[in-house]
Amino acid sequence: MAPTQNSEFAMLNGKTIFWIIIGVFAGFLIGSLVNMMIVLASLLFYVPPDGLDWNDQAAVAQFIGGLPLGAFLFALAAHGAHSLVAGWIAAAIARPFRYSAALLVGLLTLAAGYMNLQDIPHPAWFGYLDLLLYLPLAALGASLVKQPDAKTVEATESA
Fold first, then answer.
1. Helix, strand or coil for residue 55?
2. Which of 131, 137, 120, 123 is nearest to 82 (CA)?
């Protein structure tokens, strides 16, 4: 079926692709800052031992192995907030393509989360739950952004 004049494919041009890329980049960056703020806040409650060498995988694994459930809930909150905020920002910037932008940034956060799970040992339940959160929360972030009306889209395209 060929794209019609009103389909999303007909609206896709260099300008919209530019805003999707900017939205994904800005969303990922701002989401990462939110993630880091929550992770840093968690260190107030779950203080690492003095002299912990973060480059020593065995020492990090021992520290993480001794953490209580609350520490992992903090990490899930940080990762979930990253994806939610990233999806919201990406959708707000690439508004006519809000779900496309949000899911693209959701895929980036999913990839980053997977790499994190490969680098830092976590309990298995955490890994499964963590990976399941990224895409739905990015889509939820997009759903918080109001879809522009047809007049706004037409005005944006003609500018």
1. coil
2. 137
Q: What are the φ and ψ backbone dihedral angles of 5, each rounded to 5 degrees? A: -60, -30
What is the structure's pLDDT at 137? Answer: 98
What's the pTM? 0.82
The list of the chain residues with pLDDT below 70 reads 1-11, 148-159
DSSP state of 120: S
Q: Cα–Cα distances in Å, from 108 out to 41, 71, 150?
A: 24, 24, 30
CA angle 85, 90, 93 (to 5 degrees): 125
Exposed, middle or buried by CB within 10 Å (0-12, 13-18, 19+), for 101?
A: buried
Q: Output the pLDDT for position 114.
A: 96
